[in-house]
Structure formats: structure tokens, C-alpha cells
């Protein structure tokens, strides 16, 4: 492959991805639509813009041809799965950074939990039926955006009152773990065979984070729509366990969907007052929480001695893979 162009969709963490690519000397291409074009122009980070009506249109032959003519490597982020879909992306014939197969494992909650269990990591307890509920439980609806429609219940009686009929195909009864949340961002380098901690954030969620400002007798079911992200550092003594979780997930991913996780991913966890960590979700690509660590985080400073964002770390891996003729190890 001649010098690749780093391409992504105009959304989510696109600015960081384009900036990182430019810092590493790549040409950049932004797939945008009329509505978003003006906003992205303000930052002047895209050398080229491919305008589509709908992000799904990148599946069309014409768009794929254009992307391939420009030697594009697509960098997937949350909007790829949201607007195009994990399964649809498998049909795309444009090189993509990372392992496309993993997007299906993150999109399907049952598959992710299978992965966590096999990796031997602690997860919140799952109740199989409402009559098993014996503690604070979050009723999660599969595919609910921002947790809209989730309910908090403490017993079968409360489940019947607040939710009604139980449908195991549509909902999960998950123990609510009380503690503090952390969303560590990792980068697994197949070239170095190493897991790197790039940063950690805390999601700012509406209305869950707005409710404590209300009077104590005010009740409203919490929603978890992400409206922003806050940078956070974890107690240093807790970090070895976080690395252990990450190593287990990567090792198991190699067995479950070879070659496994490649590049950026984020673990979503709650840490209790007993300092036990429970993982409740994984994002198997760059998360928007990495945006808080531009141009770099304390962790990347410790490792590299210079500012390295997740966007730049991705570009560094592609640059090295190309130089060592190992691009096939980092794209799919
Ligand atoms: P999810 O839909 O799984 O991404 O969850 C949305 C939000 O609900 C998370 O970002 C957390 O704030 C919270 N949450 C999810 N699962 C749990 C859990 N088992 N215990 C406590 N909080 C949770």
C-alpha cells in the first residue's frame, strides 16, 4: 500500500483522530454530510472531504471506490456502530484499523458477557427471573439509547409495578453495583504485543448526575444519556488490577475472535468501597471519553515523555506497521 490516508466519519472523536493523523504526517479524509461540514471546516484538519447524504452510504460501491483510490484506512468510532451497524460493517471492502469482528462482540450484550465470563473477570450478578431479585437491580433494555427506559428495582413486587412483564429477549436484570465508575482507555498494540493505558474518564450522564441536586424527596427514574466526559485519575494502587483486567480481555479475545482486540478499547467498570472492580461493559474501539486527554494524558506522558492522544497513538501504530510492512497485522 502506498502512503495511507487516515479516514473517519465526521462525528464522535473525529477531530482527535484527524489531529493525531496529521501529527504523524498522514493525509486525512473526512466523510461528512452537508449538516456537519461547516462545523468540521472550522478546525481545518481534513485534507479531503467525502460528502455523503447518510453515513450508511459508505457501503455503496462508488463511495468505497473513492475511499480505496485514496488508499484510505478507516478509523472506526462509536458512530460507525450506531449509524452503520456492526454486522453491516463486515461487508465493507475498505481497510479498517483494528479487527472488524470485534464490533459485533461489543454490540451484542450477551456476547460481551460471554467474553467477560470466559476471561474470568468480575461482573455484576445477572438475575435470570424477577423472582430471584434480592438486591438493588438495574433493569436494562437491550439497545436502549442512553439507558432510557431502564428501571431500578429492589424486588419482584417492585419489578411488577414498575416494569410489568419480563421478556428475557429484550431485557437484562443486572445487580446495581454501588461505587465509583471509571472508564479506562486502553490501546493494545499487536506490534509491541502490549496493553497501554492511554487515559481514564468519567461519563457525565443526564439525569443520573443531575438528580443529586434535587430535594431528597424528589424521585424520577435516572437516565444515562452521556452529555460530556470528565478526566479522572485512579488511585495508583488500583492500576495493577485494571491492567490485569485488560490483559485477560485481550488474551481471551484472541481465542474468541482471532486475531482478537487490536488498537483502542475501553472497559466500563464500577469500583466498590471494598476496592473490588466489576466490569459492566466494553467498547471495542476508540471511545469519546478519550477526547478529554488531548493532547496527551499523564499516563502517556509517563510512557512517552511527550503528549500522545489516542488519535495520535492509532496513527503511530499505522505508521510503524507500514514501515515494517506489517499493515495486515493492524487492519481488517
Ligand atoms: P449501559 O447502558 O450498560 O452503558 O449503562 C448506562 C450507565 O448506567 C452506565 O454508564 C453507569 O452509569 C450505569 N450502570 C450500568 N450498569 C451498572 C451497574 N451494574 N451498576 C451500577 N451502575 C451501572
Automatic annotation (TrEMBL):
<dbReference type="InterPro" id="IPR023656">
    <property type="entry name" value="IMP_biosynth_PurP"/>
</dbReference>
<keyword id="KW-0460">Magnesium</keyword>
<dbReference type="InterPro" id="IPR010672">
    <property type="entry name" value="IMP_biosynth_PurP_N"/>
</dbReference>
<comment type="function">
    <text>Catalyzes the ATP- and formate-dependent formylation of 5-aminoimidazole-4-carboxamide-1-beta-d-ribofuranosyl 5'-monophosphate (AICAR) to 5-formaminoimidazole-4-carboxamide-1-beta-d-ribofuranosyl 5'-monophosphate (FAICAR) in the absence of folates.</text>
</comment>
<dbReference type="InterPro" id="IPR016185">
    <property type="entry name" value="PreATP-grasp_dom_sf"/>
</dbReference>
<feature type="binding site">
    <location>
        <position position="205"/>
    </location>
    <ligand>
        <name>ATP</name>
    </ligand>
</feature>
<dbReference type="GO" id="GO:0000287">
    <property type="term" value="F:magnesium ion binding"/>
</dbReference>
<dbReference type="GO" id="GO:0006189">
    <property type="term" value="P:'de novo' IMP biosynthetic process"/>
</dbReference>
<feature type="domain" description="ATP-grasp">
    <location>
        <begin position="100"/>
        <end position="319"/>
    </location>
</feature>
<keyword id="KW-0547">Nucleotide-binding</keyword>
<dbReference type="GO" id="GO:0016879">
    <property type="term" value="F:ligase activity, forming carbon-nitrogen bonds"/>
</dbReference>
<dbReference type="GO" id="GO:0005524">
    <property type="term" value="F:ATP binding"/>
</dbReference>
<protein>
    <recommendedName>
        <fullName>5-formaminoimidazole-4-carboxamide-1-(beta)-D-ribofuranosyl 5'-monophosphate synthetase</fullName>
        <ecNumber>6.3.4.23</ecNumber>
    </recommendedName>
</protein>
<dbReference type="InterPro" id="IPR013815">
    <property type="entry name" value="ATP_grasp_subdomain_1"/>
</dbReference>
<comment type="pathway">
    <text>Purine metabolism; IMP biosynthesis via de novo pathway; 5-formamido-1-(5-phospho-D-ribosyl)imidazole-4-carboxamide from 5-amino-1-(5-phospho-D-ribosyl)imidazole-4-carboxamide (formate route): step 1/1.</text>
</comment>
<feature type="binding site">
    <location>
        <position position="229"/>
    </location>
    <ligand>
        <name>5-amino-1-(5-phospho-beta-D-ribosyl)imidazole-4-carboxamide</name>
    </ligand>
</feature>
<dbReference type="Pfam" id="PF06849">
    <property type="entry name" value="DUF1246"/>
</dbReference>
<feature type="binding site">
    <location>
        <position position="79"/>
    </location>
    <ligand>
        <name>5-amino-1-(5-phospho-beta-D-ribosyl)imidazole-4-carboxamide</name>
    </ligand>
</feature>
<dbReference type="Pfam" id="PF06973">
    <property type="entry name" value="DUF1297"/>
</dbReference>
<keyword id="KW-0067">ATP-binding</keyword>
<keyword id="KW-0479">Metal-binding</keyword>
<keyword id="KW-0436">Ligase</keyword>
<dbReference type="InterPro" id="IPR009720">
    <property type="entry name" value="IMP_biosynth_PurP_C"/>
</dbReference>
<keyword id="KW-0658">Purine biosynthesis</keyword>
<keyword id="KW-0464">Manganese</keyword>
<feature type="binding site">
    <location>
        <position position="12"/>
    </location>
    <ligand>
        <name>5-amino-1-(5-phospho-beta-D-ribosyl)imidazole-4-carboxamide</name>
    </ligand>
</feature>
<dbReference type="InterPro" id="IPR011761">
    <property type="entry name" value="ATP-grasp"/>
</dbReference>
<comment type="similarity">
    <text>Belongs to the phosphohexose mutase family.</text>
</comment>
